Amino acid sequence: MDIIKDPQEMHTWSREQARQGKTVCLVPTMGFFHEGHLSLMRRGATLCDRVVVSLFVNPTQFGPNEDLSRYPRDFERDMALVRQEKVAAVFAPTPELMYPPGYQTEVRVKVLSTYLCGKSRPVHFAGVATVVTKLFNVVRPDVAVFGEKDFQQLAIIRRMVTDLNIPVRIVGQPIVREPDGLAMSSRNAYLDPANRAAALSLSTGLAKVREAAAKGERSVAMLADMLERHIHSFAGARIDYASFIDGDTLESVATVDTNTVLALAVHIDGKVRLIDNGYVLLGSRG
User: What values do phi and psi take at 269, rounded to 5?
Assistant: First the structure.
């Protein structure tokens, strides 16, 4: 497995794979790998001849007072995990290499970026769209795999690729959960035992909504009220948003149908912000 830090070297590596007739799948990450990340790598290995994992904590997607400085990092641990997968190369640039002096270009997906996480993190998705565009230009993948836990991010990347005619096929990979239902996230490392228990408010809230919908409840107002009371019954849990949205447009809906997604962001003890999502009607699309 090659570990590459320089963007030009990465670009040269990818061009050589193309010259050999090999297809490349990119798995973009910020590191601190867990089973969710590894599932993306395994999916990529089924889709292409070569898997490239990017490992880059992207500063432009963090706003003021967010957790850039304390975002969990452990490069050697990550390399030990990734070496157990079918990964051909890791691209691990520094911020200085990705954003050299004089850098001033930004990519924005105007409407989709204003919903959900975009309301409380206004700079986040411009940073995501910009860095993913750069990664696509550097690595030149045929396919890129993203986790469905970041539902809005996946929608934005798909829109960006379509709008800018970027020749990369985008594949979504289902959420990987802990045995108790908590969606796997690098930020779970921030949780102490009490906060870990409160974090279950997201997955159990989603389960309660699904149960009520399966029994015939279709009113978003009724489901949202039940969900809010459930989440706030957990000590330290505070809702950022709990939105019932159309799975394609991300716009809010008033009545549940087969394309309705519940998207959640919850602050735990004011320190950790976790997200989760899922289609409300199981068996419809997710």
Answer: 60, 25
pTM over the 0.85 mark: yes
Task: Given the residues 11, 34, 37, 124, select the one marked as catalytic.
Answer: 37
Q: Domains of the chain by range and CATH?
A: 2-173 (3.40.50.620), 186-279 (3.30.1300.10)
To which residue do tokens 């015939």 refer? Answer: 216
Distance CA 11, CA 251 (A): 38
CA distance 177 to 53: 21
How far apart are the C-alpha atoms of 247 and 58, rounded to whole Å?
Answer: 27
| 41: Cβ contacts below 8 Å, ≥ 6 apart | 27, 51, 53, 82, 85, 86, 87
User: Does the active-site annotation cover 37?
Assistant: yes
Which tokens go with 122? 């206004």
What pLDDT score does 284 carry? 57
For the chain, give the percent of residues with pLDDT over 70: 99
Give the number of C-alpha atoms closer than 13 A to the C-alpha of residue 6, restricted to the C-beta side. 4
Q: How far apart are CA 203 and CA 174, in angstroms?
A: 14
